[in-house]
Amino acid sequence: MGGIMKSETHFGQWLERQINERGWNISELARRGEVSHVAILRVINGDRNAGPELCRAIAKALDMPEEKVFRLAGHLSALPAPDDDLSFSEVYDMMKRLTPEERQEIMEYVEWRYRRAADKSSS
Predict the structure, then answer these.
(1) What is the domain extent for residue 111?
(2) What torsion do the CA atoms of 57, 62, 63, 68 make, to the nearest 10 degrees?
(3) CATH no. for residue 60?
């Protein structure tokens, strides 16, 4: 593989799965991300790394948080051990997409649930 790191190969495989799961082809992903289909193909084939600009385009095309794509492409380090539970990162990603009012409503619910759990444990 000529110097291609495992995470980069893994990213190409992940990207190919994302395309297939959506019923797209490489050209459709490229169109949605406004990038060259050749750039996408080279990442999938392991011929090149996905740089920051390509990662942003992929995130846009897949409607995913940039942070997730950057992390999968190896541009950001893995999350600390407590965040290995994917629910934390999933909630974070969802919260970022909500309006401030919607986030506040969810925070009020979480605070209520937390207080309720604390009350039960002290009983």
Answers:
(1) 81-122
(2) -80
(3) 1.10.260.40
Angle at 91 between CA 52 and CA 19, to 5 degrees: 50
Tell me 114's DSSP state.
Answer: H
pLDDT of residue 80: 57
Q: Are residues 32 and 54 in the same domain?
A: yes
| Amino acid letter for position 49 | N
Tokens of 57: 């385009």
Answering whether pTM is above 0.70, one says no
Q: Specify whether 68 is located in the same domain as 96.
A: no
Mean pLDDT per block of 10 residues along the chain (123 residues) reads: 44 95 96 97 94 96 90 79 64 85 91 85 73
